[in-house]
């Protein structure tokens, strides 16, 4: 088979490697499309070293068709369309014992801790597979994992019909939180980002979305004004590393300032930088902060919503390139990060 192998940091080579052999309990998948994630962009230059050694095959967002079913596996047949949940938890740590898998102390992912999906084939334990209908486009199946993050965040925040939301960050994660939230609440959703092209994608694809560019107007003031001083029920922080904007508080503090009394903030943005908050502002509201990491089996829910046409995957796909162009794809995203949401690799 062919695979995009990260031979040295910053250098992918599309080359012939050995096709994996299917072991008992496993299923061999012919991968159709893989999607490039923000964390892949960190693996590329070696930011995750030594967690991702080289040579290495990244890719944790992908889907394909069952090619061969291993010994002892039932419920799958050659030709089935499947999404692959890349998460491997230990099942032994205190979090796993409570079935709180995203908090597993030794959580591993295909494509980060083990070779992943930037390849034509992969053999994985059957428990990692989620079936989709044959007519669901292969491109969409590669997006199930990232949608899982959006659905999981809404589950952590306990979003319900009638909730008014604010989402800080209209990048990949912000967009999937928005799309997942739209399957739950029809009320107003504010989305905040300094990039107009990302705000436009959110506004164009959904009704009742109000985009706010913090370089042009103060998001907290605007939300207060448009909710008659009430604030939103839930604010999501999906920014991570935030640029400083004059006269505007950090995204996390802005989230706290934009929720109603008793409201909730859900944090997903990953950053190594401290983000100062004023606890008095939280205490006055008796507000809650919850956090959300990866997904926790929301794959079936995502696939069902994709099949019902309730999500807008085309709004996320910026570009599709062939696997042999993996190096170009990464350079493109590296050079013009703002321009792309999801770039897919076609592994045919
Ligand atoms: Zn990812
Ligand atoms: Zn564990």
Please tell me the total number of domains.
2
Tell me the number of strands.
17
- The CATH homologous superfamily of the largest domain is termed Medium-chain alcohol dehydrogenases, catalytic domain
Mean pLDDT: 95
Could you tell me the CATH topology label of the largest domain: Quinone Oxidoreductase, Chain A, domain 1
Give helix % range: 25-40%
Strand content: 25-35%
Report low-confidence residues grouped into runs of 5 or more: none
Concise structural overview:
The chain has 348 residues and is of the alpha/beta class. Helix content is 27%, strand content 26%. The strands form four sheets. Strands 3, 4, 5, 8, 9, 16 and 17 form a seven-stranded mixed sheet that branches. Strands 12-11-10-13-14-15 form a six-stranded parallel sheet, sandwiched between helices.
List keywords for this structure.
348 residues, alpha/beta, Quinone Oxidoreductase, Chain A, domain 1, Rossmann fold, 2 domains, six-stranded parallel sheet, 12 helices, 26% strand, globular, binds zinc ion
Describe this structure as you would to a colleague:
This protein is 27% helix and 26% strand. It has helices spanning 38-43, 94-97, 138-141, 144-157, 172-182, 196-205, 219-226, 251-258, 279-283, 299-307, 313-316, 326-335; strands at residues 2-8, 11-16, 26-35, 62-69, 81-84, 87-88, 108-109, 121-125, 129-132, 165-168, 189-192, 209-212, 232-237, 259-267, 288-291, 317-322, 342-346. Strands 3, 4, 5, 8, 9, 16 and 17 form a seven-stranded mixed sheet that branches. The longest helix is centred in the middle third of the chain and has 14 residues, at 144-157. It is globular. The model has no long low-confidence stretch (mean pLDDT 95). The site of one zinc ion (ZN) has 9 residues, from helix 2.
């Amino acid at each position: 088979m062919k695979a995009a192998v990260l031979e040295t940091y910053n250098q992918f080579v599309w080359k012939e490697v050995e096709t994996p052999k299917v072991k008992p309990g496993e299923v061999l998948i012919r991968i159709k499309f893989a999607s490039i994630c923000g964390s892949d962009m960190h693996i590329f230059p070696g930011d995750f070293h030594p967690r991702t050694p080289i040579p290495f095959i990244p890719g944790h967002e992908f889907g394909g068709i069952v090619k061969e079913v291993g010994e002892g596996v039932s419920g799958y047949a050659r030709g089935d369309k499947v999404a692959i949940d890349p998460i491997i938890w230990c099942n032994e740590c205190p979090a796993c014992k409570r079935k709180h898998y995203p908090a597993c102390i030794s959580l591993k992912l295909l494509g980060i801790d083990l070779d992943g999906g930037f390849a034509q084939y992969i053999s994985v334990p059957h428990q990692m597979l989620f079936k989709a209908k044959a007519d669901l486009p292969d491109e969409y199946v590669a997006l199930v994992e990232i949608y899982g993050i959006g659905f999981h965040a809404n589950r952590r925040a306990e979003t319900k019909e009638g909730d008014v939301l604010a989402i800080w960050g209209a990048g990949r994660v912000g967009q999937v939180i928005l799309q997942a939230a739209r399957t739950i609440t029809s009320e107003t959703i504010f989305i905040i980002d300094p990039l107009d092209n990302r705000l436009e994608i959110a506004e164009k694809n959904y009704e009742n979305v109000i985009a706010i560019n913090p370089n042009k107007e103060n998001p907290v003031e605007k939300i207060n004004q448009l909710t008659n001083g009430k604030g939103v029920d839930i604010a999501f922080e999906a920014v991570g590393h935030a640029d400083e904007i004059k006269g505007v508080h950090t995204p996390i503090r802005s989230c706290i300032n934009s929720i109603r009394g008793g409201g909730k903030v859900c944090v997903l943005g990953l950053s190594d930088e401290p983000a100062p908050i004023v606890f008095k502002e939280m205490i006055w509201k008796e507000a809650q902060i919850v956090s959300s990491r990866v997904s926790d089996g929301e794959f079936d829910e995502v696939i069902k919503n994709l099949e019902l046409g309730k999500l807008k995957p085309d709004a996320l796909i910026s570009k599709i390139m062939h696997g042999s162009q993996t190096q170009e794809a990464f350079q493109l995203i590296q050079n013009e990060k703002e321009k792309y949401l999801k770039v897919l690799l076609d592994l045919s």
